[in-house]
């Protein structure tokens, strides 16, 4: 597909990297020469220097033959304007990043009236992801399939867990839990689980289960499973604002520590029932005064990655509670993973992931569609949900009789309201939604998993 | 440094060079020449070594940066030339290795300077190989490879930047692979068109192929001792037109094909054709008395301007015998060259435009010290990095020209011979003046001088920096 990306920031870069690998022709547009050159030097794409909201620049970038325009500059207004102009200039789909709460509230109106294909709000998406892990603190990361009927949970096996030393196949016999272990990350390696794999301490495990089964599973292995009751948030940005709204719905008590007095005023105007503390969280006394030791969860959302990581490390030494850290820079994720910081949220990744998901769904309109797509382990393992429409090679045959490629796991079959964690005798039927976990990246069609 | 990646690309390159030898192999087979076995042997040797190297060096990671890109380009061209010289030596056509290397480098860099006095006595397959080196060298061998095999993600842009001529190299379409394919398709189409037009005239098929590929690469190796001089006016005019066409930036052709006439006609092309017309008129007025009619004089002046500006190096007449004014114009044209992004050598008009603007800017700033002024070409600001690199390019260019002229002087020839020999090789033109004029050749130089000229040709074709980086200590530091 021909894709134009306006804005060469971190999200733009992540998009170029992922979409470029999937055989799309990409043109990037930015005002700054240096930004454009940086990206074109690093990735196989074309660069155009200019204002992406002008007709001339878009023509130069090839809007007349483009299939999709993604506007991810720093400014909401510019993004929306880009999309409007692009829509008029060429016949393409448009995606805009809109982050301010005012516009976000009108997302559906914007989509309808401006003809946008997608409005993405990274801050809201990040807040939603944080809210999910706070509901289920045992997991580091939770992705959902089929509107929440099936979850993909990632968690780190605690020390002294009864699961240590067990083999994967013993889970159903010993624990009588209907969960499916998908991948295991140990040190820097990632494995697709087979039955004989034995768990070790500190393994990072991804598993597929329905929410109820996951809850039962964590109870059996004696891992905290109760939703967080009170949350301490450091940094009162947009994510914190959205997060408060989400948390209050579930009755969690929230405390925000923000160092800018004016922002504190703003927050207390727009939020109700949230205690807003004006203070610098980098000051240890402030944290101690606000009882960091007893908090159920500590969420670091300041604008500085370094400060977030440092605060979380401090919180880890002080409290048993759940830790969530926001990190903007994607490049150093391998180092950060080793810090053992529980949940790390990368808003930029969340944004690019959902756009990539959309692009992939756009590419295939026949056969079976990719409904949802998650990166289980970045660049190594993906989980994709397909709706089976018309696919004779797979329908009606027991799974044990199908020839799958190596490292492909049929993780779940959703039929109506029923969720099946598949075994060899199960069959896939027409209309099913199927979750596939695989090391083959960029699956477009369900038949891609067959040999 | 990713040495494996460098080795891998070099292996691929050797393999492709072996495949390129299909052209002389076919010629030898058709004409039943004894060189057939030589070419088959060398081709198999190249393909064998190439496959082996690329297998051994299969890169663990595909990460590479500017450093690897420049090194790959520099080593590729050196290796390409050495292997390209083998058939000349083994077949006995050019027994001395340095002479053969000179011929091979001159071919790949599309210079067209030769050490051979009598080319008509050479086997046809050797002539074919000489001409074909122009064709592959013109657009770039690595660009050719990139059209067919994926080297690595975006990072092979460094290779393209280092191999393609011009101060700022851009892509036509987002993918490097598609860009390379489009470039080579246009290149091939124009070459075939020229071949058909030439074959329709008084050239035979063999002469037409050779002349077409040599014009396309703006090389200039002829198959006749008097170059194009012995052919009909029709042939000479066809060659003139195509020399001008191959001087034009290929991006402009692409824009024309897509119907963007305004963008295609950029200021570089306007300056190029303006200069060509000006130079042709001066030479025409200056040489009119030498020829029987105005048409004849005009034909020779336009042809000579085309051959020198496009850095091809064919000739119809001995322009060395022209009056001083014409000779000076030829020398000036030689130092300018044609458009960036074409197959031509030389300093490039786009650099001249940037330097000229830079000069005006400096003069204005002397008068208005507080003035803020940006250098613009076609209404677009030229980035500071490009302006800086053009300035440094000029410094290196002049230094290399001066040092080469000095080194050549040890042979005891006159200054005009030495200076034009250095500038004609550095700009990949071909003929110079006096002893290296269009009817003479480079065999007058000693072995050491030939090495200097070989260096100049490579430096000129790769636009100085990749070769100079080989001699920069920090390239080799960890």
What's this, in brief?
Chain A is α/β, with parallel strands linked by helices. Chain A is built from 15 helices and 22 strands. Chain A has a six-stranded parallel β-sheet with strand order 3-2-1-4-5-6, with helices on both faces. In chain A, strands 14-13-12-15-16-17 form a six-stranded parallel β-sheet, with helices on both faces. Chain A has a five-stranded antiparallel β-sheet with strand order 7-8-11-9-10.
Describe this entry's structure for a reader.
Chain A is of the alpha/beta class. Chain A has 4 domains: 2-120, NAD(P)-binding Rossmann-like Domain (Rossmann fold, 3-Layer(aba) Sandwich), CATH 3.40.50; 126-220, Regulator of K+ conductance, C-terminal domain (Alpha-Beta Plaits); 230-349, NAD(P)-binding Rossmann-like Domain (Rossmann fold); 361-449, 2-Layer Sandwich (Alpha-Beta Plaits), CATH 3.30.70. In chain A, 33% of the residues lie in helices and 26% in strands. Chain A contains 15 helices and 22 strands. In chain A, the strands form 4 sheets. In chain A, strands 3-2-1-4-5-6 form a 6-stranded parallel beta sheet, sandwiched between helices. A 6-stranded parallel beta sheet of chain A has the order 14-13-12-15-16-17, with helices on both faces. In chain A, helix 1 runs parallel beside helix 15 (347-363) and helix 7 (122-135) crosses helix 15 (347-363). In chain A, 45% of the residues are buried. The model of chain A has no long low-confidence stretch (mean pLDDT 84). Chain B is mostly helical and 478 residues long. Helices cover 65% and strands 1% of the residues of chain B. Chain B has helices at residues 3-20, 22-31, 36-56, 66-91, 97-108, 124-139, 141-148, 157-163, 176-200, 205-216, 233-245, 250-257, 261-264, 267-287, 294-309, 324-336, 349-367, 384-408, 415-426, 447-461, 465-470, 473-476; strands at 376-377, 380-381. A two-stranded antiparallel sheet of chain B has the order 1-2. In chain B, helix 2 (22-31) runs antiparallel to helix 3 (36-56), helix 2 (22-31) packs antiparallel against helix 6 and helix 14 (267-287) runs antiparallel to helix 16. The mean pLDDT of chain B is 90.
